[in-house]
Design brief:
The structure is a homodimer.
Chain A lengths: L7 E9 L3 H4 L3 H20 L4 H14 L19 E7 L5 E7 L5 H11 L4 E3 H11 L12 H15 L13 E6 L5 E7 L9 E2 L9 E4 L3 E7 L1 H6 L2 H12 L3 H12 L5 E6 L5 E5 L3 E8 L4 E4 L2
Parallel strand pairs in A: 3-4
Antiparallel strand pairs in A: 1-5, 1-12, 2-3, 2-6, 5-6, 8-9, 9-10, 10-11, 12-13
Helix pairs in contact in A: 2-3, 3-4, 8-9
Chain lengths: 306, 306
């Protein structure tokens, strides 16, 4: 048994294969960005902030960073637009909020929190969610705010690949972001945010705003945020699956995460970050890499890519 | 131990409180409608149809029936529009499809099946899902097709209640429909379809298209369709929760459904229908009533309201 941590934070910035051109010369930039996110979370939690406030703030930081596929720097849809999804969940109350198809809200994770706190609903999508955003007063930006040249070129490559009938399916775009935390009060929380997949069509929604798939938190078991192939996370209710294995199968957090990543999901599907009531975070993936970081009250502080 | 059924079908037509004015003089009409759905399912399964084909056909029948809050006869949004959600899942492969915010597709459950079979995605929403519908060629109708006078008057009552600041929250609208089935090959499937809640706003999505919440199927455990307060079903990943209790907690289907309906959900939240590999269907609810029906190869044939 490890000693209980008073607080704990873990983050991810996406999982997948690691295109050389995307990492070349930038590994340190990714470590730095992940380190900033972990540091922000650690400072908040050390100071007594709630896990809910912390995961929201950390995900906002990652949304604002163009390195990641969430908020600024998100991937483009087939039509050349950007449609963002996010979710947040509080382990104490099981309250949760999720949004999908967001086009003008600077920080979708904050809109998800407004859904949780200011509506009787859990999940708002599309134009309706945008109308709600204007009513509750979150930061609105022009869609051009999210645009980065690198993501635009990714879309152009994908469109060329489609038009030449190349056989290989596109690699899931690395960069979905997420955070899980335990605070000094013993409360767990999780949040996730993404631009989805490059070249997605037809209003595709992935796992991120599907509570139980990409995001889940329950004080009795764990807080989980997923990254990878959204459709596989949905099919296997990946985040809640970890919780259920702990609650009903008597697994430890490490066992439960390990089973879902290595046995339930297939190699290449993605990764999970999770933290339980004892504050020992677990970060696992079955892809070439997962941008990740963790810190806790025992002095742990790390960031990783492969 | 009960004997294994060769095939089994269960359906629901929504759960909730039972407004007298909605049932008055129509109880037999509801029994008849549920009986037709069960009979269709039983005839298909007896004849060797797959559980997937069966739940789709049965849900289509219920979508087409104006008595229920799905397809024709769906409830109205705050804006006086109709936005439909549906999902379908196959227990053998864990393949699944879901749609949300549908306005012109006559049978949303069939569109959900097209998502499952003809895209790499699971979940399409809004205008994108409508564009996909046109591309794959499902029956398109004018939005006025879905309109019934009774649902329109329900919306007007809700809007009046809102404007007078009445305290009580609206009762979740009865009438979401769903089906679960076991076929002769031993394959399970589940499907669910709904108009959501009367007076819903902001592109609200409920549990129906959230795989694991309103709909789940896995040959190893069960097929489940939920009806009731969607936000509660999402928070507790109700349908997948039943599956997880069987898989990891060693519960029987009846125990697992009973725990979720009576311990995890709160009184008044709704109900679940479920069937396992042995074909014995379980139908439970914690509301005043649930429109429901079941039949199997042992000769069971029943419909119920309270």
């Amino acid at each position: 048994m490890t000693e209980r941590r008073e607080w704990s934070i873990a983050v991810h910035g996406g999982s997948g294969s690691m295109p050389k051109e995307r990492l070349a010369g930038r590994e340190q930039a990714f470590h730095d960005a992940l380190g900033r996110a972990v540091t922000l979370g650690a400072e908040m939690l050390r100071g007594g902030a709630s896990s809910l406030d912390t995961v929201e703030a950390v995900v906002r930081l990652l949304e604002d960073d163009p390195l990641f596929n969430a908020g600024k720097g998100a991937v483009f849809t087939h039509e050349g637009t950007i449609e963002l999804d996010a979710a947040i969940m509080e382990g104490k109350t099981l309250e949760c909020g999720a949004v999908a198809g967001i086009r003008t809200v600077k920080n979708p994770v904050t809109l998800a929190r407004r859904v949780m706190e200011r509506t009787p609903h859990v999940f708002l999508a599309g134009d309706g969610a945008e109308a709600f955003a204007r009513e509750v007063g979150v930061d609105i930006v022009d869609p051009s705010y999210f645009r980065t040249q690198e993501r635009w070129e990714e879309l152009q490559r994908e469109l060329r690949r489609e038009s030449t009938n190349a056989v290989s399916l596109p690699t899931p775009e690395m960069g979905t972001v997420g955070a899980v935390a335990l605070d000094r009060e013993g409360n767990l929380a999780a949040a996730t945010s993404t631009g989805g997949r490059t070249n997605k069509r037809f209003g595709r929604i992935g796992d991120v705003p599907v509570i139980g798939a990409g995001t889940y938190a329950n004080n009795r078991t764990c807080a989980v945020s997923a990254t990878g192939k959204g459709e596989e996370m949905i099919r296997h209710f990946a985040a809640a699956n970890v919780s259920a294995r702990i609650e009903h199968g008597g697994r430890s957090l490490a066992q439960a995460v390990g089973e879902v990543v290595r046995e339930v999901l297939a190699p290449g599907d993605g990764g999970l970050i999770a933290v339980g009531p004892d504050g020992v975070a677990v970060l696992e993936f079955n892809t070439e890499g997962m941008f990740r970081g963790a810190a806790d009250s025992s002095g742990r502080f790390e960031t990783g890519i492969r």
